[in-house]
Amino acid sequence: MPTARLDIEYDGSDFAGWSRQPGLRTVQDELERALATLLRQEVALTVAGRTDRGVHASGQVASYEGAPAEATALNAVLAPDVAVVACARAPDGFDARRDARSRTYCYRMLLRRPRSPFERGRALWWPRRIDVEALQACAAALPGTHDFTAFTPTQTEHVRFERDVLEARWERAGDLLEFWITADTFMRHMNRVLVGTMLEVATGRRSVESFEALLTGRPRAEAGDTAPAHGLYLVSVAY
Amino acid sequence: MPTARLDIEYDGSDFAGWSRQPGLRTVQDELERALATLLRQEVALTVAGRTDRGVHASGQVASYEGAPAEATALNAVLAPDVAVVACARAPDGFDARRDARSRTYCYRMLLRRPRSPFERGRALWWPRRIDVEALQACAAALPGTHDFTAFTPTQTEHVRFERDVLEARWERAGDLLEFWITADTFMRHMNRVLVGTMLEVATGRRSVESFEALLTGRPRAEAGDTAPAHGLYLVSVAY
Questions:
Q1: 0.90 exceeded by the pTM?
Q2: Is B52 tagged catalytic?
Q3: Longest pairwise C-alpha distance within chain B
Q4: B114/A72 touch (CB, cutoff 8 Å), yes or no
């Protein structure tokens, strides 16, 4: 059986996340239905990053056992908020999830007083004061191996809470402020709780040191709020 | 009576254009209703650029006779696809339309094979070959005063067909190709017919010379198709 690799983009606004869920509209469902239509066989996708409800992807990767389908034909049957950028034969046994060495996510914020019609649902609107240097000090503490127990829900499927962060930084360009992070794998909500907690530091409600102290396996209750999903993008996966 | 100036952004996708029309959702209606709610008086807006159905604006300007309203309060009662960036007292008698010296528009195209969930409704998707140098040669012919009769519908309210183009150029950045044009004023559909006709040159169906020849007051039938509205943005107005 050949193996195929899909490179995918989606606007997560109207999806209940990646993973198939009965009665809900999910990216996995949408793609598996399109593939089944074109390939005339059932297809089960394995994905690099199981994004939550409302999270976007500009560089998601999935794989399946079967022949590749034509990307243009797939896009013709897919809804407009999801697109296949490439669909190609992969090395036998390629597994988009297991074979991924790292994932890169970006969290986008819009720093300006008025809200923006063009960035609604695409970036977290932040009309208040924010200490960008404090955010950068937090991000500087992230590279390396840490226990991220504080940054994922207590009720969780995870069994191992250490993650290896390869790179993390905040970047500003005009009104946009972006948090970029690359790690081996991420736990559920991890990026959004990281951003929510760093925002507490950036608004004077928490110190950089208290943020750093959370990276040693503290309980979830000690970290901050989960930032909204609509600012988060899965940008790329490295193999 | 004081005069107020409004700086406005809108995603034109779900609007039937700027101008009030019975039974249709327009930007003017939306703003006049919000202003009337806050100011407790009827307000009649004058606008720099009466954009068509589906056209966007990132730098629209309007004026009205009356006190300025608080931008944050206006945005709280406006729909999410329109935002007031500023609302301020203007010099007595300021008229957003009559006092404008020039308007700048941008037409955005996305050059890539797969369609994009993030640029749908925001840029014209162009998956085919395109001759960018031919587009640039066309744009180079635009600065100066020309008769744009060929670039506006035959049934029109305009009485004068000469327009003074101050600047025009195509710019490429990655997958995005943008046409920037600044002129004293624009006629109905003028930018979209310019783009549609230049695209005929860029796909080998028309010569640069035949495009240039249209700038001398030729009939509408000799120019090309009207490019889709969703690639067009009113970017700024100079006073």
A1: yes
A2: yes
A3: 57
A4: yes
